[in-house]
Amino acid sequence: MLRAESEVPVRMRRVAVVAPEPALRETLVRIAEAGCVEIDLAVDGGPSVRRGPAASRLQRLRAGPGPAVLSAAPPDLDALEREGRADLLAGEAQLEERLGGAVRHGAVAALAGWCPEAEMEATAARIAGAGGALVPLPTPRGVDPPTLLTGAAEGPPDRRPRTVRRSFTPLVTTYGTVPYADLDPTLPAGIAYVVMFGLMFGDAGHGLLLLALALVLRAGRPRRAAALRPLWPFVAAAGLASALAGLAYGEFFGPTGVLPVLWLAPLDEPTRLLTAAVGLGAVLLALAYGAGIVNRLREGGPAAALYATSGVAGAAVYLGLTALAGSVWLGQAVYGVVGAGVVAVGLAFAGVGVYAGTAGGAGGAVQTGVQLFDAVVRIGSNVVSFARLAAFGLTHAALGAIVWDGTTSSAGRGPAGVAVATLVFCSATPWPSRWRRWWRGCRRCVWSSTSCSPGSSRLRAAPSDPGVRPYSTSRARPVGPGRPRLGRPPDAVR
């Protein structure tokens, strides 16, 4: 399975593990058994912790890195040192580190950390038996949660990503990981890609070939392309969009005359196609500004949503420029006046937000002006850039017309001409074998990025130690070099 598709981030929640002092060790042992809470360490900003008895004994053993296990009950550290049990001492050392980092008030102790939202209920029930509690906390400003990656096919059935969403996931993960507070753009991005693909490569015959390729991928054939099987819904959707656009264009393996033109013929009405592409881009950008407002609101509150160039201020500038363009297109001066006023208000709010992030003074004013000018230019260039969709559609239609003209002109020259016509037509048609080669190239280009692969470790217990509990880690990507994870003593804290 493709790495970019098989790993998805899990939404994390800030929590506090609270327990009475006598029950704190048992609570942490159960947290370790659950394996889904990362407890803040002293190096993460907590109180300083001195080396405990287990850590001192482990240092005297001078044992190299190795597996660590945790005893269910407090062990005899002297006996473990005499027996050379570095694994048990390592587990106790990591447990001491977390016990020493607890914040205490009277007879109650608390530790802050992170837990996957989907695991909070089960974890709270697990530690309740020991007298502990898992309390949700607000996420602190300026602090990013740790990144936990899990396989797309793992977890309970009701929590697994749907097949369609899984096929669209590489479109988003190729560009980076979506912040936890933001909306999930996977499905909207997939739908936008499919619609744009149909506009660029509208041909009913080619779309049907793509649908056939999707069915082949779904069947796991050929075996060399089995890793692409999860992408079959994306390929099928692209084929369907291409076929529907081909019906609108009247294209079936080119302008063969098999289908009537239901909307427009690209080569006959290129201006209309260009206008439709730019209009589609304007709608997509408006939706993107709406999502940006929600994301800024979630990330930084109302102020961030109001003053950000990707928030309300930027949306106002965009709508104002749209009204100005509409006044020119329709010849209505009132639209231009309203649009200019909206642009001025949007730029004023955006300028306040940009200037607040500068050092102030004349340099900050210059920087603000440059960034506002850049924001206006980017809005125009982004809208106009969607004309490329029509350009691809025109190129595709022109190539199809050239192939069809070559096919028909050769077919009227006897048997040899028919053979040449067949060769020309078949060589210009994207048969499934050629699509498979194209997908292999996409796989090398898109999914060969050096993203951090999930690691795993396992806490093992010797069969001769009936009081030792083994724990295993979940698949997680470390946030930084050497940073422990997921609050499980000992190596399970990854």
Structure write-up:
This protein is α+β, with helices and mostly antiparallel strands and 494 residues long. It is 55% helix and 8% strand. It contains 17 helices and eleven strands. Strands 2, 3, 5, 6 and 7 form a five-stranded antiparallel beta sheet that branches. Strand 5 and strand 6 form a beta hairpin. Helix 7 crosses helix 8 (186-200), helix 11 runs antiparallel to helix 15 (387-411) and helix 12 (312-330) runs antiparallel to helix 13 (333-356). The longest helix is centred in the middle third of the chain and has 38 residues, at 270-307. It is flat and about 95 Å long. The two termini are 24 Å apart.
Distance between the termini: 24 Å
Order of helices and strands: HEEHEHEHHEEHEEHHHHHHHHHHHEEE
Percent helix, as a range, is: 55-70%
**CA gyration radius, whole angstroms:** 30 Å
Major β-sheet annotation: 5 strands, antiparallel
Shape: flat
Uncertain runs = 1-6, 151-160, 432-494
Summed up, the helix count is 17
The assigned structural class equals alpha+beta
Strand content: 5-15%
* Average of per-residue pLDDT values: 78
Q: How many strand segments?
A: 11
